[in-house]
Amino acid sequence: xxxxxxxxxxxxxxxxxxxxxxxxxxxxxxxxxxxxxxxxxxxxxxxxxxxxxxxxxxxxxxxxxxxxxxxxxxxxxxxxxxxxxxxxxxxxxxxxxxxxxxxxxxxxxxxxxxxxxxxxxxxxxxxxxxxxxxxxxxxxxxxxxxxxx
Length: 149
Hints:
This protein has 149 residues and is of the alpha+beta class. It has a single domain, classed as Multidrug-efflux Transporter Regulator, Chain: A, Domain 2 (Orthogonal Bundle). It is 42% helix and 11% strand. The chain has helices at 15-22, 26-34, 56-70, 75-87, 132-148; strands at 100-103, 108-112, 115-118, 124-126. Strands 1-2-3-4 form a four-stranded antiparallel β-sheet, with no helix packed on it. A hairpin with a 5-residue loop joins β3 and β4 (124-126). 16% of the residues are buried.
């Protein structure tokens, strides 16, 4: 059975496609690459006329960057955290297994199953998150049960 090109899953994306998918500008992606903050998974040779190709994990990382910038994380703090991420050799692939990226506007944290890790230092703390809407629903259900009984 032959698979047509239209149905095949795309493994690599151009810089223009990465910009569109990540909601960053093409210039911002060039800036991130030029300052060695982002390294495309394929096509890492530098120079004029050389194509950079981005993987799905790279696009996810670019999208996270876009969201952090949009929500007030300063470019300088972002640069510090991306440098730390690169030093730890997690880069984009680390985001494929991480459940949450959390920020206080200054620091960036990864959160997985009750463990919060400060990205810049790797310091780990244990934490849990209570979803208050579920708690409110539980209390309301308990109150309704009391009224019925």
